[in-house]
Amino acid sequence: MSAIIHANLSCMKLLSDLHDSANVSALNKKRWHLAFSTIYCSRAFLSHFKHQESSNVISITMKKKISPEPSARIDIDVVQKHPFLSDIEQSSLTKLLKDKSLNQLAKLGGVEGICTSLKTDHQSGINGDPEDIGFRHEAFGRNTYRKPPTKSIFHFIWEALKDPTILILLVCAALSLGFGMKENGPKEGWYDGGSIFVAVFLVISVSAISNFRQNRQFDKLSKVSSNIPVEVVRNGRRQEVSIFEIVVGDIICLKIGDQVPADGLFIDGHSLQVDESSMTGESDHVEIDGNKNPFLFSGTKVADGYAKMLVTSVGMNTFWGEMMSTISSDSDEQTPLQERLNKLTSSIGKIGLAVAFLVLVVLLVRYFTGNTENDDGIKEFNGSKTKVDDVINAVVGIIAAAVTIVVVAIPEGLPLAVTLTLAYSMKRMMSDQAMVRKLSACETMGSATTICTDKTGTLTMNQMKVTRFWQGKEAMEGRSYTLIASNVLELFHQGIGLNTTGGVYKLEFSGSPTEKAILSWAVLELNMDMEAVKRDCNILHVEAFNSEKKRSGVLMKKIDHDDTYHVHWKGAAEMILAMCSHYYDSDGKMKELNDNERLGFDQIIQGMAASSLRCIAFAHKQVSEVKGQKRIQESGLSLLGLVGLKDPCRPGVKKAVEDCQYAGVSVKMITGDNVFTAKAIATECGILNPNQEANDGLVVEGVEFVTTQKTKEWRK
Ligand SMILES: Nc1ncnc2c1ncn2[C@@H]1O[C@H](COP(=O)(O)OP(=O)(O)OP(=O)(O)O)[C@@H](O)[C@H]1O
Ligand SMILES: [Ca+2]
């Protein structure tokens, strides 16, 4: 404590010395006292604080020098590291990711060590109360990026002024004004030039205001569109939060198709591949795993697999943030129509200029060679006999005529009319709840002849629910767990609880809509306890789901059990069925799957598909040896059961499809789902006509869409 007092006393002495030496007026003296006491008090306070938390770094910077000027104002910035998170520095985390250094990671205690320093549990995440989040904001910042300042109206006025047509017109206006006043006197001579000035003024102000407003609107939109939901685990609960609310220490669940929302480290997961092309330009996917490459970067995209990551930097501390701050984005692009019209305008302008020049030359030549006569039939130009004043008047008249041609020829209002029309149609589209991110979209939409739409989530609500369940060849209803043989029920629990990317927290389900539907069905109707299943079993190998494979599998072993391993597959029913050689009947007995039975199951699947259900099948196999196997066995499985998931059509889709068709735009569905399910939904939405058998390529499988010639033609 004595050290502190000493420090304060010396500070006081320094200031009073200064005080004495300054020869100041009474008013300034007063200010000095104020400044002095402010500094003294804050110093005393801070040193006290320092004493208590000796590990914290406290620095004081005085922005303004203390000066006896009347306007003296003292700002004190306190940059302070929160005691709660004092074990680790942001700079070392940033450096770790920047260098992708495994050594450095090991020095920091690996991912586990960093979790501990960041006061995060790698299973249940941060505790997530407002105070905790506040500390993290204070210590590591927020997940927002510094944006270039929005352009002011003057920027747009300047842009409009730089247009060559406008410049030509301004010159013309000035000439016209000068000549007009010379010819007809200042009182009446300004009409022509003045009106050109007014026209130019109108064009500039209208286009500047319209561009300014559009720019502001796009800014607003980009704020909305960059606000994407991210799945985080906080306090053991998986939940969705906005990307801007992510803090350092958060545990984030990533799945295929997600954007990585901040920089961080891989904790656990399977077959995670990331598309880093937005950062490196490399189109190859980068494999991420715990040992060789656990580094994940903001702005990249998950191409395959799933994982949990620990956030280590957010916002401007990320690699992406650093990159963005050096690039200034310019969105002053023009739509194709605007570009073409601008070209047209400038060629017309050029022709106008050429013609005007020609007229000027011809008229001048005619005048000076004495080929022109005035109203009385007398030669206008008569060599040296003509008065200088008359010559000047005649030449001015000729130039004014040429200028008039230029002014008339330039269609300066044409591009402006297009801009205004596009802005207007954008406004109309927005009021119809269509988000327009680029002005050119309005134009493109106007000339579209085919709309290719996704099925799930676009035509349907993306809220799936299991509505049918077949075990063996029997349709089950309601809370069916009492009716299923216990051995089969256990296999169901394992197959669903382990072979999933979703999660259950109390009665909240997370994951993709398909996963959520299956999990909620298993918990509510099959009485599954996910925690218990996870506790009792070890997952040895995972094959993650992706839209190409249409299935996911796990290899697992029960803890404290014999040497038997279990393979579980789940996926598109027809594909899983093809992998099966046996099935469990409703009594829980395993039976062989002969051709007849297979046909029976095919019919069940088609029946469900015809009533627009997504069909998912579960299959299992017990294996004894798994030595050195890289892949999970895919044949000789036993079918456990089939479920049908209902995803209702969005209300209003049918009307929208009809409107499109009425307007001559054909609507096609691109899907990865079972063809029969897709057709049933297409019929429900009015894309397919129930009476017309031929498909006409209105429902297309994703793979086919990418590969076939016909679809290439549409995409042209
Ligand atoms: N989580 C999952 N686990 C296993 N199989 C799944 C899962 N989700 C979907 N499937 C199966 O994979 C198929 C393709 O699923 P995906 O989600 O890629 O469909 P999609 O191509 O997006 O279809 P849509 O046209 O409906 O949008 C589905 O028909 C379904 O049978
Ligand atoms: Ca004109």
Automatic annotation (TrEMBL):
Catalytic activity: Ca(2+)(in) + ATP + H2O = Ca(2+)(out) + ADP + phosphate + H(+)
TM helices/strands, residue ranges: 164-181, 193-212, 348-368, 391-424
Subcellular location per the Swiss-Prot or TrEMBL entry: Membrane
Cited InterPro entries: ATPase_P-typ_cation-transptr_N, ATPase_P-typ_cyto_dom_N, ATPase_P-typ_P_site, ATPase_P-typ_TM_dom_sf, ATPase_P-typ_transduc_dom_A_sf, ATPase_P-type_domA, HAD-like_sf, HAD_sf
Source organism superkingdom: Eukaryota
Entry's EC annotation: 7.2.2.10
Keyword list, A-Z: ATP-binding, Calcium, Calcium transport, Calmodulin-binding, Ion transport, Magnesium, Membrane, Nucleotide-binding, Transmembrane, Transmembrane helix, Transport
Predominant subcellular localization, coarse grouping: membrane
Membrane topology of this protein: Multi-pass membrane protein
Domain Cation-transporting P-type ATPase N-terminal: 104-181
Functional summary from the UniProt entry: Catalyzes the hydrolysis of ATP coupled with the transport of calcium.
Listed name of the protein: Calcium-transporting ATPase
